[in-house]
Amino acid sequence: MGTPLIELAGIRKSYGVGTEVEVEVLHGIDLVLHAGEFAALIGPSGSGKSTLLNLIGLLEPPTDGSYTITGQSTGALADDELTALRGNAIGFVFQFHHLLPAFTATENVLLPRLIAVGPPTPAQREGARDLLRDVGLGDRLDYLPRKLSGGQQQRVAIARALALGSPLVLADEPTGNLDTHAADDIFALMRKFNRERGTAFLIVTHDPRLAQRCDRIIDLVDGRIASDRANVAAVVAAEARPPG
Amino acid sequence: MPFEWVVALRFLREGRFQTALIVGGVAAGVAVFIFITALVNGLQANTIRRTLGTQAHIVVRPTEEMAQVQRPTPPGNTAMPKVEARAQRLRSIDQWEPLEAELARTPGVVDVSPMVSGPGFAVRGDASKSIAIIGIDPIRYNRIVSIGDKLVGGEFRVQPGEAVLGRDLALDLGIGVGDRVRLITANDEVVTGDTFTVTGIVDLGVRDMNRRTVYVGLRTGQSLLQLPGGVSQLDLTVTDLFDAESIAKQLAAKTGLTVESWMQTNAQLLAAINAQTITTRMIRLFVVVIVVLGIASVLVVSVVQKRREIGILRAMGAPRAKVRRVFLLQGAMVALFGSLLGCALAATMIAVFLKLARNADGTPLFDLVIGPELFVIATVGAIVCGVLAAVAPAQRAAALDPAQAIRM
């Protein structure tokens, strides 16, 4: 196995701390994800999947426990440092696409760079367009999101998540809003980038069919990891099929 | 373009109707601000100019003579002398020539002009009119009240043997330019008089003055009024009209003479002008408050509408400070666009006003003087207000919890 990309140890998360309705959602999570992994995070509603994903995505701090990402311990970081780390290390894909409606497909893909670095050079602009061609949107480069179908918007979101070459993409129900056909396409696309670029994916999904196609399945029940297993069938299938 | 600018512009463009409304609101506010400022400034300048057209800004006169008890009260007695106020005779300012030089050197004073004035009669045939004889140096006097502009006939020339009359006096006596008039004065029961050629007729804007005023040369006046070499008052102009009172006080303390500013002699006018200024300030303040509240409320709504987008931007690595700047910039941009539009609107309103508000003879009612600085001040002020208005909404945007914002 490769180097640890993220490492969670004894992670707990409570909401409403200090009030009467304090409730603990995650009860001590230990989890290691390596570079280049392609893992599914499954579990029933209310099991804490989204919370765990937000913690890994540095969108919320844990109440207790230690979290290290790309070798950096996050416990003592200030908000701006966490934000910068998030921008560089993590790409997000959400269920409802969440593109910025006032920006074209290309501009949406360029946004992470605009935030982190500044105005793009023509070469970088072309890079973003290449990425969109890669996700099959070569003929929709300058469309506004509302002119794109759900599947197409999700492709833009994937391109955007990969725009800065982050080692990890967190996908929260990326296909939850799509029909089976579009869902398969999106899944295949993530798989493709995982193989080609070695980007690690952690995908929250309700769809057992899609989970079965991941290399690793983490099952979260009631805020605890109930099972965490390698999915041999998918690994074998992936190895049998040459990349591309 | 940096991230904040791109996003701010796109957000504004996206909320088209909202943006148009608030830009329109700012434009209306800025237009009212500029227009009312120009209007009131023009009105006040006009009123003051008309009032001071025939007055010096500051007048220096000899102090009034006081009656004094001559006999000392014997010790042990209490005396209650009855003192009558003295009749004030025409007197000259002591040592007025060095004083004049000193006045001219006083900071804030622009020009000084000596004048001798006193009562007399203008006689032609059987008609005799009571007049005020004013002896002046025409060139220097012109700097104080620009008398040349008030000529309605002839020219303002007061060589020995020449006089300039007020319009109504000339009418009363039935004389015109080139005619002769006899001026008489009486001092200590000695009647002196001489015959003068009328060289010019002036309209001083006030009938009472037009009926009484006769200008002669300074030396002629001195001999007519029997104040050889003396002057009865010194007229001053100052750089800033509204400094007149403080300069007058300072001069009174220094010279011990009676010094009066136009602000004292026209106290009612000044009170009216001050009330106008305060009213204008209040209106402008309310306009600013309304504009600020308008911008703030539109931006607050915009923050709520854009919660998810703000969340995404934060997830993609935009720090709080950048999100805050996006909204501060929107405030500034709305204010900038609004004030540019407002400046154009104000210029149009002023042009229309100048066209409509005219005297019966077709000349403008008064000048609306607006320098470019008023537009610059309004624009810069609007941008500052826009940024201030955006502070609270921007703070809310920056404080959004990204995880919650995205989940919405």
Summarize the SSE layout with pairings:
The complex is a heterodimer of chains A (244) and B (408).
Chain A: E1 4-15, E2 23-34, E3 38-42, H1 49-56, E4 64-69, E5 72-73, H2 79-89, E6 90-93, H3 105-116, H4 122-134, H5 150-162, E7 168-172, H6 180-197, E8 200-204, H7 208-211, E9 216-221, E10 224-230, H8 232-240
Parallel strand pairs in A: 3-8, 3-9, 6-7, 7-8
Antiparallel strand pairs in A: 1-2, 1-4, 4-5, 9-10
Chain B: H1 3-14, H2 16-52, E1 58-61, H3 96-105, E2 109-124, E3 127-136, H4 138-145, E4 151-154, E5 162-166, H5 167-173, E6 180-187, E7 190-202, H6 207-212, E8 213-217, H7 218-224, E9 233-238, H8 244-255, E10 258-261, H9 262-265, H10 267-305, H11 307-315, H12 320-356, H13 372-399, H14 402-407
Parallel strand pairs in B: 3-8, 5-7
Antiparallel strand pairs in B: 1-9, 1-10, 2-3, 2-6, 2-9, 4-7, 5-8, 6-7
Helix pairs in contact in B: 1-12, 2-10, 2-12, 2-13, 10-12, 10-13, 12-13
